[in-house]
Design brief:
Helices cover 31% and strands 25% of the residues. By secondary structure, the protein is of the alpha/beta class. The model has no long low-confidence stretch (mean pLDDT 94). Bound molecules: 5'-O-[hydroxy(phenylacetyl)phosphoryl]adenosine.
């Protein structure tokens, strides 16, 4: 079995020694460098040098997405800005994005992690890797890109969209590995058929697919339609981006690269660490990052951990594919969207009543988000042209604010069902 980095197969004891050493160094450094952490650690009664064993992790304080927001944009960075060479960002629960920063060394470590994922998915230096994750503030495009270069394959920086052109390049350049969201992989498969491009005209052999939830059923479909081996890749910008974990050839859980992140699974209500094999909220602690390192970051993603040895020879713990979230975050074509963000946009548009619903569906393998919102009675009796203008305004504002295109349906006053408790804001009809 090939690994990109021998650490992937280190025996447990050696790996745990490294983890402890790195955890202690991280906590000590954050105490000195980040006022937020100094305060939190003081509250928890931790001083530099107090981390003596990996069991001490459980006693460290959690970090939440809101903590990043409250310290927007760079308040949690652990190095001066002059040492930050890259910034990425993703959506937060309200107006502000979650901003993350990397030092030059962080970029190298991240590239190494992603290189491991490509090798785990069967990649070699001979591969042509088609990167269709978005390039930009999103970590997907550039994250995969640097990993490809690190392991010496050829990167095609396609970014998302313009699917016909993607297919043409795939044929002309002989792409062998496809990196994109699973839903986009299905979309590409469909466009290939529309364009009359047969499977024999493309050289694809595997896919590194993630950034959104998917199922084994969807994997079967993708593997069949594209005739590839599809591997699940997981990550989140707060922790590093793609490259936190990957499925190996066994496809029985995703190996979490423990030399860089310590995973825990907790009960989301009590915060208690759950025994191995039990499902709960995933929590990660960065132990190999300089620019922004988070202690016990609450991902809101639901999973569980498997400690049994894996036949592939990698010793790092495996996590189950993500089976849900503890909050209401939606992922629409790879973009994280919180209903509260849509609400905020709607509330700023005059002529609307504060009643809305978000209907999510998957049409021809693409996520479609429809915003249904009631108009005020005065507006409703107005001319059609004004209503059309209103519709367009909502579409434009959501697009510019959230970076995702939506359909808008203006509804008659009192047509959206009133709640008798928690309002049902989201109807998700996607079958994944
Ligand atoms: O989605 C990073 C990434 C890029 C991962 C490319 C894989 C490939 P964010 O935009 O910060 O980062 O979104 C992170 O997306 O907390 C999960 O809820 C979800 N997510 C990411 N990967 C998976 C996956 C990138 N394989 C959030 N399965 C995470 C299910 C995933 N959900």
């Amino acid at each position: 079995m090939d690994y990109f980095n021998p650490v992937e197969a280190w025996e447990r004891e050696r790996l745990d020694d490294l983890k402890l050493q790195r955890l202690r160094a991280t906590v000590d450094r954050l105490y000195e460098a980040v006022p937020f952490y100094r305060e939190r650690l003081d509250e928890a009664g931790f001083e530099p040098g107090d981390v003596k064993s990996l069991e001490d992790l459980e006693r460290l304080p959690f970090t939440y997405k809101d903590d990043l927001r409250d310290n927007y944009p760079f308040g949690l960075f652990a190095v001066p800005m002059r040492d930050i060479v890259r910034v990425h960002a993703s959506s937060g629960t309200t107006g502000k994005s979650t901003v993350v920063g990397y030092t030059a060394d962080d970029i190298q470590v991240w590239a190494d992690l992603v290189a491991r994922t490509i090798v785990a998915a069967g990649g070699t230096a001979d591969d042509v890797v088609h990167v269709s994750y978005g390039y930009g503030l999103f970590t997907g495009g550039l994250g995969l890109h640097y990993g490809v270069e690190k392991m010496g394959a050829t990167a095609l920086p396609m970014s998302g969209g313009n699917t016909k052109r993607q297919v043409r390049m795939m044929v002309d350049f002989g792409s062998t590995i496809l990196c994109c969201t699973p839903s986009y992989a299905l979309n590409i498969a469909e466009v290939m058929i529309e364009m009359g491009v047969g499977r024999s005209q493309v050289k694809l052999k595997s896919g590194i697919l993630g950034a959104e939830p998917w199922s084994d059923e969807m994997r079967r479909q993708i593997e069949e339609e594209l005739a590839i081996s599809a591997h699940d890749i997981y990550g989140l910008s707060e922790v590093v981006g793609p490259g936190v974990s990957i499925e190996c050839s066994e496809k029985n859980g995703l190996h979490v690269f423990e030399d860089s992140f310590i995973p825990e699974v907790i009960d989301p209500e009590s915060g208690r660490v759950l025994p191995p094999g039990e499902r709960g909220e995933l929590v990660f602690t960065n132990i190999n990052k300089e620019g922004l390192a988070l202690i016990r970051y609450r991902t809101r993603d639901i999973s569980r951990l498997f400690h049994e040895p894996c036949p592939c020879g990698r010793t790092h713990v495996r996590m189950e594919r993500i089976t849900g979230r503890t909050d209401d975050m939606l992922i629409i074509r790879g973009v994280n969207v919180f209903p509260s963000q849509v609400e905020m946009v709607l509330m700023q548009v005059p002529g609307l009543a504060p009643h809305y619903q978000l209907v999510v569906d998957r049409v021809e393998n693409l996520d479609v988000l429809e915003v249904q919102v009631e108009v005020s009675p005065e507006m409703f009796s107005d001319e059609i042209k004004r209503l059309e203008e209103l519709e367009k305004r909502i579409r434009d504002e959501v697009q510019s604010y959230l970076g995702v295109s939506v359909r808008v349906r203006l509804m008659e006053p009192r047509s959206i069902q009133r709640s008798e408790g928690k309002a049902i804001r989201v109807i998700d009809k996607r079958k994944i």
